[in-house]
Amino acid sequence: MENSTFNESLLTESFTLNGPASNDEISKIPHVEMLPSDYIDFLKLGNGGHGSIGEEHLIVFRADEISQINQAAAVERFAPGLLIFASNGGGQSYAFDLRDKDIKIVKFYDFDLGDEEPFFCAISFNGLLMYLIEQTT
After folding, report:
1. DSSP secondary structure of 17-52
2. Per-residue pLDDT reduced to its tens digit, 51-106
3. Does an H or E element contain 119, and which?
4. Position 3 in a domain
5. How high is the mean pLDDT of the chain?
6. In angstroms, rounded to a whole number, what is the distance separating the alpha carbons of residues 136 and 95?
7. Would residue 1 count as lying in a domain?
8. Per-residue b or e along 71-93, where b marks 16 or more CB atoms closer than 10 Å to that residue's CB
9. What pLDDT is attached to residue 78?
């Protein structure tokens, strides 16, 4: 788990945060102990949210939605070791890749789940936001 705090300045004014997640909600996320600390900090600030990051749309799921979303997508069957936590709302998902000891954030098209190797984006939640911002420059 990376030791960093969430950098709130990476969020744009058009990104709407939900209310903060409780420790109980966060503790129910599968493999929570492996997730980057900046992502956990984000959830404590806002239990998910949606809006623009750069020119990309990002939907970060609420802590209490993550298990259900991963079950509905059959992630454990088609792409074991991934944990979906966000989407662009247009068929592309973002997931924590838990297959190695060095956790990373990857993206993939939903229809490719399990067929193609996901694309590396970042090693932290802050890094994902910076990656999305840089996609527009």
Report:
1. EPPPPPHHHHHTSTTGGGS-HHHHHHHHH-SSEEEE
2. 999 999 999 999 999 999 999 988 888 888 999 999 999 999 999 999 998 999 99
3. strand 119-122
4. no
5. 91
6. 21
7. no
8. eebebeeebeebbbbbbbeeebb
9. 82
Kindly state whether residue 74 falls inside one of the protein's structural domains.
yes
CA angle, 96 as apex, 91 and 98 as ends, to 5°?
A: 135
The domain of 56 spans 8-134
Per-residue confidence at 4, pLDDT binned at 50, 70, 90?
low
State how far the Cα of 31 lies from the Cα of 68, in Å rounded to an integer.
14
Rounded to the nearest angstrom, the gap between the alpha carbon of residue 111 and the centroid of all alpha carbons in its chain is 18
Q: How far apart are CA 75 and CA 97, in angstroms?
A: 11
CATH number for the domain spanning 87: value is 3.40.1580.10
Which pLDDT belongs to residue 1?
42
- Total structural domains within the chain: 1
Q: What is the pTM of this model?
A: 0.91
Residue 15 lies in a domain: yes
